[in-house]
Write a structure and sequence with these properties.
Layout (H helix, E strand, L loop, with lengths): L1 H16 L4 H22 L9 H27 L2 H8 L2 H12 L6 H17 L5 H27 L5 H23 L11 H29 L1 H8 L2 H13 L7 H31 L4
Helix pairs in contact: 1-4, 1-9, 1-11, 2-3, 2-8, 2-9, 3-4, 3-7, 3-8, 4-7, 4-11, 5-6, 5-7, 6-12, 9-10
Length: 292
């Protein structure tokens, strides 16, 4: 499980290591992820089809959110640092606290609303020494987090009717088609799209196969063995893994101030506290409910 989370933490680092623009990087990730996931589902003999136009339409809509999430995430990283991009992304868990009551009609939680204010405080501390580029990166990063939260909530509804493998395959496929049209409109859908160094190609294969399709397939089995709470709580360690990798691989400790790490500690602490709060609230409700 932690190996998979470590691999996900590496995705932010790849946004710096791969010398491609964000749109091109995400297009290649979608292409490689779609092909490798499709092959994986065939090998494992898992259903990859979605029946019904309403479910197809809903899945394509979520695919738009996934694509927007990835593009804005990598733009954020390329404008600033991998640490800032992943720190913004860690706020996605708290966006879920107000999106779920709106989309899935779950009860509103004032405690989670308070957690959200604490996160805003952490972001305020982080942004004190920002340049203009850093503020732009922060905006893209927070949009990315919002999209990540939204597609997680919508996927939570879709998975009741469609298996998760088919959902992800369709979302990757729609994102690939969508970005292809965007690149065509920009005049960038040509042979130059495939012009890259060997290093970029190898990192893209790692990103698309290992970090996307393989990580997804393994996560399904991990959740089945360990439970969703254990996995969800552990995933909150992803920003920590990314920041540690950024220190050792990108030397970002030379670019970031003590204030940044103070704000980051507050944000990550709140995200983990929010997960624990949800867990213990669920236990209390289970104990309070009448036994048959």
């Amino acid at each position: 499980m932690h190996l998979i989370i470590f691999i996900w933490g590496f995705t932010g680092i790849l946004g710096v290591l791969i010398k491609l623009e964000a749109l091109e990087l995400v297009w290649h990730r979608l292409l490689i992820g779609f092909i490798s996931l499709f092959i994986g589902l065939l090998i494992l003999r898992r259903n990859w089809r979605i029946r019904g136009w309403k479910l197809n339409l809903a899945t394509l809509g979520v695919g738009l959110l996934v694509t927007t999430h990835w593009v804005t995430f990598y733009i954020s990283i390329q404008l600033s640092t991998a640490s800032l991009g992943i720190l913004c992304l860690s706020t996605a868990t708290l966006h879920v606290s107000w999106l779920e009551p709106l989309i899935r009609r779950t009860p509103f939680s004032w405690a989670e609303f308070l957690f959200g204010f604490l996160v805003i405080g952490g972001i305020y501390i982080v942004s004190q020494d920002f340049s203009a580029n850093d503020y732009e990166a922060l905006a893209f990063g927070l949009v990315s987090a919002l999209c990540a939260a939204a597609f997680n909530v919508f996927n939570g509804k879709l998975v009741k009717y469609v298996n998760s493998g088919a959902i992800t395959l369709y979302e990757l496929g729609f994102g690939l088609v969508l970005l292809s049209f965007v690149l065509m409109y920009q005049g960038n859908f040509n042979q130059e799209l495939f012009s890259m160094t060997l290093s970029d190609l190898l990192w893209l294969l790692f990103l698309g196969i290992i970090c996307t399709s393989l990580a997804f397939l393994l996560t399904i089995d991990i959740i089945d063995k360990l439970g969703s709470f254990t996995v969800s709580l552990s995933i909150n360690l992803e920003p920590i893994y990314t920041m540690l990798l950024a220190v050792f691989i990108l030397n970002e400790h030379e670019l970031l101030s003590l204030r940044f790490y103070l704000g980051a500690t507050i944000i990550i602490g709140v995200v983990i506290a929010n997960a624990l709060y949800k867990h213990f609230r669920k236990i209390r409700k289970a104990k309070a409910s009448p036994q048959p």
